[in-house]
Amino acid sequence: MAVTTLIFHQVNPCRRRKLFRLLKILRLFYRILSPEAVFSGHDSPRGFLLTFDDGYADDALTISAVNRVFNIKCIFFIASGFLGRSKVEEKNFLRTCLEVSAPEGVTLAAADWAQVRKVEQAGNWIGFHTVSHRRISHLSVSQLRTEIRESKRDVTREAISAKPIFAYPFGDIEAIDQESLAVCFDHYEKVFSGSRGANIATDKLFFRQHIDLDRPLIINILFAVGFFDFLYSRQRSLLKKISTAQ
Fold first, then answer.
1. Which of 117, 162, 171, 221 is buried deepest, with most CB atoms within 10 A?
2. What are the distances in angstroms from CA 192 to CA 7, 91, 121, 188, 210?
3. Which of 202, 173, 206 is nearest to 77 (CA)?
4. What is the DSSP annotation of the chain?
5. What gap in Å lies between CA 182 and CA 105, rounded to an integer?
6. Whether pTM exceeds 0.85
7. In b/e form, how buried is each residue of 31-49, taking b as 16+ CB within 10 angstroms?
């Protein structure tokens, strides 16, 4: 295998235990890589890279736990407009921008900027995920450039040194097009999708395996190792086509 990038969202304490079981099994057979090892350019790494999207408080805590238990660094892609809001604004952002709702008895909350700084200071990478978490294929070039500029302004204001890497919101083939991908490549060294597949470290467009920790462990193992990648070959082909057109 080459580099397989896993995406996680909303990893609360219950899901954290499931994540740890998954990582312990994967680590028996594969390397789990820190972003520095993948993108340093010193070799051709093979293994798994862990990413967390959106900016949830639970994910900030989970990243710190992964650092401590496994000595592995991760990437935290944050939608900067999710952070620093009132509880009412945060709930509205969850519903209208992230398009999620909390299950009964579950609280979803954004990390605060202090948590993001702590994640970065521990050696993890912070990446960009826009401000508003809108589908960038629905934005004009001007609107997308504004999102890019303002997200960089937000992290700079908070004394965070984000890497020039970007995960576009929602990650599916409908969430990006040739024009918006070209704008992203103008500003970022790597663009991460949500379409399944493996990568090599020099790729500019990265595929990622979404892992739903509420699924059975065996299913997530199969997703992680690429057993179902053939089902997403059309998505990969379309993304590669618009990527190589740049």
1. 162
2. 10, 26, 23, 10, 12
3. 206
4. --EEEEEE----HHHHHHHHHHHHHHHHHS-EE-HHHHHSSSS---EEEEEEEE-BHHHHHHHHHHHHHH----EEEE-GGGTT--HHHHHHHHHHTS---PPTT----BPPHHHHHHHHHTTPEEEE--SS---GGGS-HHHHHHHHHHHHHHHHHTT----SEEE-TT-SGGG--HHHHHHHHHH-SEEE-SS---B-TT-SEE-EEE--TTS-HHHHHHHHTTTTGGGGHHHHHHHHHHHHT-
5. 42
6. yes
7. bbbbbebbbeeeeebbbbb
Residue type, 41: G
